[in-house]
Design a protein that fits this description.
Four Helix Bundle (Hemerythrin (Met), subunit A)
């Protein structure tokens, strides 16, 4: 017997913009069909998401416009399954350390497959060797940001050690003003434009969007610029206790 309340409660309470708007609700619609099928485990769904990603990557790697559209659609199905495995685990209260580890590992494998296939497809069509360092640079920032956000050892805010009556130097004041400007800009970008929050759902949305218009190189430029900013902003914001809560 399907418990409808448990189905609804299986969705993450707090998730990324795209996962909350589309992928999570779509996965929740599929959940009743697999919730009581015992042989379909959360790890099975994770594995299905991985194999579907391989298929999506095969279409993307052709570089053919019509196949890129198919790849874009499959990428979204990959992420729906990625949401579904967590919902199924929460519905059954069957979350495990191995399942969490397996999910994280397969996410990184999928990232590599997608970015590699984007570069390969672009190179096949345009013979543009620059796409390779662009793709690897973008992938580097994706991995780096994932570590910043999900690292096991969190970067704790520093303790303020100020001495009473000791005036701050102009150098310290200028440094603080510069940091405050960066924190303000980063917080504004992060909170006002959820699409740029760089969660996996937002990344998959952007991948599909740019694939639909066959603008893969433009996508990689965007990821690199965004990743370069977050590479400096995110750890400093954590260290100074200024990390935004979207």
């Amino acid at each position: 017997m399907i418990d409808k309340e448990k189905i609804k409660d299986a969705k993450k309470k707090k998730d990324g913009w795209w996962a909350s708007l589309f992928s999570g609700p779509a996965a929740n619609l599929l959940l009743p069909y697999v919730a009581e099928v015992k042989w379909i485990t959360p790890n099975c769904v994770t594995t299905s998401s991985l194999f579907l990603c391989f298929i999506a990557a095969a279409f993307i790697a052709t570089g053919v416009s019509s196949f890129l559209i198919i790849g874009a659609i499959l990428v979204q199905l990959v992420f729906i399954l990625d949401c579904l495995d967590g919902q199924l685990a929460r519905y059954r209260k069957a979350g495990t350390n191995f399942g969490a580890w397996y999910d994280r590992v397969t996410d990184r494998v999928k990232d590599f497959c997608i970015y590699f296939s984007i570069a390969l497809g672009h190179y096949k069509v345009y013979e543009d060797w620059l796409i390779w360092p662009l793709a690897m640079g973008a992938l580097f920032f994706v991995y780096l940001f994932d570590y910043y956000v999900n690292q096991d050892v969190k970067l704790l805010p520093r303790e303020e050690n100020s001495v009473e009556g000791n005036p701050k130097s102009s150098q310290t004041t200028n440094k603080k003003a510069l940091l405050n400007k960066m924190f303000s800009l980063g917080s504004t970008v992060y909170k006002s434009c959820p699409l740029l929050q760089f969660h996996i759902g937002e990344q998959y949305f952007l991948i599909s969007f740019f694939l639909l218009f066959n603008q893969t190189r433009l996508f990689l430029y965007m990821v690199i610029m965004l990743g370069f900013f977050y590479a400096f902003y995110w750890p400093l914001a954590q260290y100074y206790g200024k990390k935004p809560n979207a």
